[in-house]
Structure formats: structure tokens, C-alpha cells
Amino acid sequence: MWRQNWTSVNEFILLGFTTHPILQQVLLVLCSAVILATMFGNSLIIYLVWVDSRLHTAMYFFIGNLSFLDMLFTIITVPQMLVHLASGINIITFSRCMAQLNLTLSCGMTECFILALMAYDRYVAICQPLRYPTIMRMQVCIQMAGACWLGGFFNAAALTVVTINFPFCGPNQINHFFCEEPAVLQLACMDTYIVKVLIFALSVIVLIFPFTFIVISYIHIARVVLSMHSARGRQQAFSTCATHLTVVTLFYSTIGFTYLQPQSSHVADQEKRASVFYALVSPMLNPIIYSLRNKDVKGALAKAMGKVS
């Protein structure tokens, strides 16, 4: 309705990082290596969780969900960037841009919920170990993960519908390497106060509430762990939480910079650089973090390698 009296934009130009030919070739090589490492690492985690019976627990089920989300986010954003770097043509149609915006929002919101579930899993395992098999049985885990996926996609759909109905009449240059909500809103031809309020409200629900839940969970975990008499027990408990805390820190420290501050043009470059971490670096590092610090994953990998050889 808002777009009836405006000349609609049919396509956008993604400015990316640089227009220098040599730098574009360097970025092409680096990003190609990143996507290969991301897809291989996360696929390996999913495979190990699927085939090794020792990993058929709630914690690894959620890790598998996280790996799938990282792969999906990478597929949505990085291949298009590689095509743009290789061809030098950075054009994306309006419909494809909105579809990419919706899917990246869906993945990001779902990941926030999954990370909160992983914290809850650690809380139950450490603070209520006797009730763990009952509370975190697989049927319940599937239902909770399904709710996370549905919640992420429904929230993203609502935000995307509002964005699509804003008028875009030019300029059509997006200061980003993919269609992300704050960068796209900079190009709207009318006041975007309503959608910015909606973004903030959803950010509180999707970012602050899960993060607060994670913090509260780990406060209880720390209280229980510090009261343990066994030094080995404390070390094992902290070790199982360290990987999750590392992933949470990487994810929230960057995505919060983009969505939990007032939107303005002078921070667009900083937001673009921050998004590199949760769009490229974090999905690549997550499998490494889980495999290097987890004996079960390393054992499953050794078992799988033994079967292959």
C-alpha cells in the first residue's frame, strides 16, 4: 500500500567490501576457502552425531542443529558473494534480496533460541543430573528444537512482510555484501520508525531474552560447580560448558552490534565488518571449537576414520 505512489526499485546493487580488482581476487580465494571449510566441518559434525550412538544425546542433537544452521546461513550468503566477486556484477533483484533477508533473519533468530536451549541442557545436566534423562529425552528435545525453528521463521516472516511494504525508490546501493535488514532499511523512501521499533522489539525477544536466559543458567551452573568437592568434577563440568560459552560469545558479540544499537549511516561500515564474523567466521569456527575441546566428538571421528581406513 505504501508503494503505490512511488517508482519502485526492481533491483539492488550490493557494494561489498571493495572495487579494487586485486583485492576482489584475494577475497574470492579467501571466501572460497572459508565456505569449503565451513561446509566440510559442519557436515562432518552432523554426520558424526547421526552415525555414532554415543552422540545420540540432547547436547549433540542441539550441536547438530547449530551446525545445520551455520551451513544454511553460509549457503544463503556466501555463494552469491563469490559470484559477485568473480563477475564484478553486484546486482540482485528485489525479490531475491527480500528472500535472502528473510532466510538470514530466520537462521539468525533460530540460532539464538538453539543457543539458549544448549545452555538449558547444560543447566539440567549439571544442576539436576538425576532428572536429566527424563527432562532432556529425545522426544522433548525434538519438540523444543522444532519450536525454535518455527519461532525464528515466523518472527523473520513478520519482519520481512513489513520491510517489503516500504517504498524503495532510489538510491538502490546497499552498503553490504548481502541483503541484511538494517542495511536494506537505509534505502527506504519514507520514515522507517515503525519497522525500527519492531526490530528493537524483536531484538529484545530474540537476542536479549535468550541471552539473559543463558546468563542465568550459567550463574546457577557456576554456583553448583564451585560447590563441588572434587577438582576433577569441577574441571569436567567447566570443560563441557566452555565450548558453548565460546560459541555464544562469538555470536552475540557481533550480531548484537548490528541489531541492538540505533541505526544510522555512519555505522554502516562497522556493521558490515561485524557481520563478517557471524556470517563467515563463526560458522567456520564452530565445528573446530566443538571438535578440539570435546573428547566424545574426537572419539567419534577416530572411530569413523577407522571404519573408512
Briefly summarize what is shown:
By secondary structure, the protein is mainly alpha-helical. The chain is built from 10 helices and 3 strands, in the order E-H-H-E-H-H-H-E-H-H-H-H-H.
Key words describing this protein structure:
309 residues, mainly alpha, Rhopdopsin 7-helix transmembrane proteins, three-stranded mixed β-sheet, 3 strands, 3% strand, globular, disordered N terminus
Fold and architecture overview:
With 309 residues, this protein is mostly helical. The protein has one domain (11-304): Up-down Bundle (Rhopdopsin 7-helix transmembrane proteins), CATH 1.20.1070.10. The protein is 75% helix and 3% strand. It has helices at 21-51, 58-87, 94-127, 132-135, 138-164, 181-185, 193-226, 231-259, 268-292, 295-308; strands at 11-14, 91-93, 173-174. The protein has a 3-stranded mixed beta sheet. The longest helix has 34 residues, at 94-127. The termini are far apart.
Q: What is the fold named in CATH at topology level?
A: Rhopdopsin 7-helix transmembrane proteins
Proportion of beta-strand residues: under 5%
Just name the CATH architecture. Up-down Bundle
Largest sheet: 3 strands, mixed
Mean pLDDT: 84
Oligomer: single chain
Any idea what the shape is?
globular
| Helix content, binned percent | over 70%
Instruction: Outline the low-pLDDT stretches.
Output: 1-5
- CATH H-level superfamily: Rhodopsin 7-helix transmembrane proteins
How many domains? Answer: 1
Strand order of the largest sheet: 2-1-3
What is the CATH domain class?
Mainly Alpha
Secondary structural class:
mainly alpha
Question: What is the H-and-E element order?
Answer: EHHEHHHEHHHHH
